[in-house]
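[Automated response] Your request has been received and processed.

Submitted sequence:
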Amino acid sequence: MINVVFFAALREQLDCSELLINDDNLKTVADLKTHLANKNDQWQHVFANSALLTAVNHDMVNNDHSIKSGDEVAFFPPVTGG
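Generated structure:
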């Protein structure tokens, strides 16, 4: 299983803080994003954002990063400063 967590505004937008996903066909972060975007229109809108940040096992990664069972994948909204 892959543990998926959502932080900051994403948690509120999706009304979800954490999911467990058991799908052996998910090989990359991009695969996982596509899988999650297919849940409904709100999730599709969130995962269409190309600025969405992703960490796998606490390391920031890009969309082609490999994932496997036992990984924790975290999604963060884009960070802004000011």
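Summary generated for your ticket: The beta strands are 2-6, 18-21, 53-56, 59-61, 72-76. Residues 54 and 62 are 7 Å apart (CA to CA).
If you did not submit this request, please reply to this message.
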